[in-house]
Write a structure and sequence with these properties.
Helix content: 40-55%
Strand order of the largest sheet: 1-8-7-6
Number of strands: 8
Distance between the termini: 92 Å
Structural class: alpha+beta
Largest sheet: 4 strands, antiparallel
Radius of gyration: 26 Å
Number of helices: 5
Length: about 190
């Protein structure tokens, strides 16, 4: 006859809570030491290479595509970036906690735009587009003066737009032209 007590694990062989906590703390401390040593000894470029390789590996399983729309394209302004900036300013919902407000001299209406590192979700023909404005500081030039060295910081801005990869063709054929057209209309409406 099979008894229920024979099927349950023997609690006498389980480690105590104190042992489990001390082992976890030990592993966490070891991981922190290894991480610190790795940051000091392994060149930054190699760290980035490993990070990007791992990131790319896991991204290959994703069904989403991310497009980067930079503020400038070479020496000129990227028209898609400017159009997205105007268009997304109208997509700010009542739930948005942080956004920018301005009223340029030559315009008659107040305009809103996305704040740094904020996300807005836009719907177009039943497809969801997740927009995020990214701003980061980059060192552009170094110059030396009598008192020391100056580092000139430059701000780089771009949008990331994420969507399901099956909609890639629709983005280029319908969505981006729609954003460009809408922003042009909005720009004309703002003029006095």
């Amino acid at each position: 006859m099979v008894s229920v007590s024979n099927m349950l694990p023997d609690h006498g062989n389980l480690p105590s809570a104190k042992t489990i906590v001390s082992t976890a703390a030990s592993l966490a401390a070891s991981a922190m030491v290894i991480r610190s040593i790795a940051r000091d000894l392994i060149p930054y470029e190699f760290q980035q290479y490993v990070y990007l390789s791992i990131h790319s590996f896991f991204k290959s399983f994703s069904s989403e595509i991310t497009l980067i729309i930079e503020e400038s394209s070479g020496l000129s302004t990227n028209q898609i970036y400017k159009a997205a900036e105007i268009y997304l300013g109208t997509k700010i919902s009542p739930n948005t906690n942080k956004f920018m407000v301005a009223m340029p001299k030559m315009e008659s209406k107040i305009s809103t735009s996305m704040a740094k590192n904020q996300e807005i979700i836009d719907e177009f023909k039943g497809v969801s587009f997740k927009w995020r404005q990214i701003t980061r500081q980059v060192e552009s030039t170094r110059s030396t003066s009598h008192s020391g060295q100056y580092v000139n910081q430059q701000e780089v801005r771009y949008f990331e737009v994420r969507f399901h990869k099956k909609h890639k063709q629709m983005v280029f054929e319908s969505y981006f032209p729609y954003v460009l057209m809408e922003s042009k209309t909005m720009k004309e409406e703002k003029r006095p």
